[in-house]
Design goal:
This protein is of the alpha+beta class and 631 residues long. The longest helix has 28 residues. It has a 31-stranded mixed beta sheet that branches. Strand 13 and strand 14 form a beta hairpin. It has 11 helices and 31 strands. Among the domains are: 175 residues, no CATH class; 61 residues; 146 residues, no CATH class.
């Protein structure tokens, strides 16, 4: 037996030596460049395109069957210019020869591709420059193999290295042009049942959208061909984008991803968006019927960073707010549910803290509920629904404010510091339209609010009442207070909203020395207010030291009309002098009438005549009325 193994070893060594000698001889006497013209002619015949191999073709046999091709270009289709459809500077591929011959193992070495450029174009007629490439030649019939034959091959690749690649797409119909540059991809060993390490990056430019940026990626990928799944362990993607917002946006994500048949699951997410950090999980559907699921928690998000500022000339030309279009197509297509919790959110001058947002959207109907947040020392709760299933969107809101600081709210919304105190309110409204302007004009529902323990800065209602009285009495105006301020204990109002106009018939303001009530309206689309109120002074204010008894008597015995009107952000509040004049005339007429009826114009009794017994005023008035009726 030993002698047999010895002979077999000699034969195997001889065969190996023969293969080595044959490989060396092949390398010395065979030049693949001699076949350059035949290769180019064959491609021309099968595709109608020119294949130009400018660089050298190198071929080696042992121990690797290796092919190395220099600069090569593949021509474009007729009508698409002289720019090649594809080209590269160098391509290299090698395969170990002995494992392939002896063990049916395809062991590929380092696969390299340098400076690949691919140009895809669509002309004005909608024809792509890649069309027709798959039409050349007839498909060869598959060879039948016995069922019991095992034709599987074990394939592995040491690494794949694509460097400095570029891809371009241009559509003459739309003017769109998309470019990917500096694309690089490097992998570790690729083999069945093994994880593959990948790293790479690219730069992109999207026109005419004006969007550009960079993307880098790194991960370890595991393939399961039998289950049809992929797993990305420690997936890290980062980059920046320009052209979407006013400032560049930097972002990055670190997660473990599983690509299944129905969805891509992202677990253990750490997402960085500029200065905001999100953590949680997401599920992205792969099919049209799947639902997007999200469960994220973030620290602080500044939405002002992502809002494009209005042009200065537009702001000067018009002070009207630009309507915001409702994204109907997005809502109709969105199938999503989940929750988002944020430590704080800044929007304009509004600061929301401890934000909790739930969302459920399907079949064109979106609901944001629950919504809760702390804001300006108080709280907000809401339930917002948008129904975009019809031709026009329908908005429904049920919102509540509790204990919110008026000073902070007015400063954030109107850039004014003229109100202090707290506000409580409830707003149940519906509206229809494709943008916020249409929604405001069709608002219907109910509103109620209450202002507590505050002041209206810049307005001194007590001074205005005294000034109006002085005007009627033709007296000198009193000295104004400094600073002007009207304190209130509470201001309450409830009412109905019809077509964007809030009608309030139970306005009531309680002040330390005065009560104001009445009715009015707020035009929400126009942001204007118009109220006609009645003020009654109940007592002398503690701060009023220079008020005479006569002046105080005039103010306390009279109901004083007050008018509030103007822009909602800064309305004017003053006594209605016109109504006061009407009231004075009416009172004088009444006084004269009563004097007439009570005998105020009768001559006094003559001297020596006995005066009639004085009658009760009520009895005298009745007698006069009887006399009038007899006439």
């Amino acid at each position: 037996m030993g002698r047999i193994f010895k002979y077999l070893a000699i034969v195997a060594g001889a065969l190996l030596a023969l293969i080595i000698v044959a490989g060396i001889a092949f390398s010395l006497f065979f030049d693949p460049n001699d076949f350059r013209d035949k290769i180019q002619a064959g491609v021309k015949e099968s595709t109608g395109r020119d294949l130009v191999i400018e660089g050298d073709i190198e071929l080696s046999v042992f121990p690797w069957l290796a092919l190395d091709v220099g600069r090569t270009s593949f021509g474009n289709a007729p009508g698409f210019g002289d720019e090649p459809m594809a080209r590269f500077e160098k391509a290299k591929l090698s395969v170990k020869l002995l494992p392939m011959l002896l063990r049916r193992e395809v062991s590929i070495g380092n696969a390299e591709l340098q400076s690949l450029q691919v140009n895809l174009s669509v002309d004005s007629g909608g024809r792509g420059n890649w069309e027709g490439l798959a039409e050349g030649g007839e498909e060869a019939p598959a060879e039948e193999t016995p069922d019991e034959a095992d034709t599987s091959l074990a394939v592995s690749v040491s690494s794949i290295n694509v460097s400095d690649a570029e891809f371009a797409y241009a559509d003459a119909r739309t003017g769109d042009r998309y470019t990917i540059k500096n694309a690089n991809l490097k992998t570790g060993k690729v083999a069945a049942g093994m994880g593959v390490s990948i790293e790479g990056g690219l730069s992109f430019d999207l026109q005419p959208n004006g969007m550009s940026g960079d993307v880098d990626i790194e991960s370890n990928v595991m393939f399961d061909p039998d289950a049809g799944t992929m797993a990305f362990d420690n997936l890290q993607i980062s980059g920046f984008v320009e052209g979407v917002m006013d400032a560049p946006v930097t972002w990055g994500i670190k997660t473990n991803a599983h690509v299944g048949g129905e969805a891509v699951a992202l677990n253990d997410i750490v997402l960085l968006l500029d200065d905001t950090k999100f953590t949680g999980a997401m599920k992205i559907p792969r099919g049209a019927d799947g639902a997007f699921e999200v469960d994220l928690v973030a620290d602080a998000l500044d939405l002002n960073r992502y809002m494009v500022p209005a042009a200065e000339e537009d702001a000067q030309a018009s002070e009207e707010a630009v309507p915001v279009e409702i994204p109907l197509d997005l809502i109709r297509a969105l199938n999503a549910r989940g929750s988002l919790k944020l430590g704080s959110v800044t929007l304009g001058g509004l600061l929301f803290e401890n934000v909790d947002l739930g969302m459920n959207s399907a079949n064109g109907k979106m609901r944001l509920h629950p919504i809760s947040a702390d804001m300006f020392d108080g709280s907000y709760k809401g339930d917002v629904r948008i129904d975009a299933s019809g031709s026009t969107a329908v908005l429904s809101v049920n919102e509540t404010l509790a204990g919110v600081s008026l000073a902070s709210l007015a400063g954030a919304m109107f850039e004014k510091e003229n109100l202090t105190g707290q506000i409580n309110g409830n707003f149940k409204l519906t509206g229809r339209g494709d943008d916020t302007a249409q929604m405001q004009k069709t608002l219907n529902g109910t509103m109620s609010f209450e202002l507590l323990d505050g002041a209206w800065e810049g307005v001194d209602l007590w001074y205005e009442l005294r000034r109006a009285r002085a005007l009627l009495k033709q007296e000198a105006a009193p000295e104004p207070s400094d600073p002007p301020r009207t304190r209130f204990s509470s201001v309450k109002a409830t009412g109905v909203v019809t077509n964007g106009v809030f009608q309030n018939d139970d306005f009531l303001a309680e002040m330390p020395f005065m009560q104001v009530n009445g009715r009015g309206s707020v035009d929400i689309p126009a942001a204007t207010v118009d109220y006609r109120l009645s003020a009654r002074v109940l007592s002398k204010p503690e701060f009023a030291t220079d008020v005479s008894d006569e002046e105080l008597g005039d103010l306390t015995k009279t109901v004083i009309p007050v008018r509030i009107s103007g822009p909602l952000s800064d309305p004017g509040i003053k006594p209605d002098v016109e109504d006061m004049l009407k009231q004075r005339v009416e009172e004088e007429i009444k006084d004269r009438l009563f004097d007439k009826l009570l005998g105020g114009d009768e001559e006094p009794a003559a001297e020596g005549e006995e005066a009639e017994e004085e009658k009760d005023p009520e009895d005298a008035l009745k007698d006069k009325l009887k006399d009038l009726l007899k006439r």
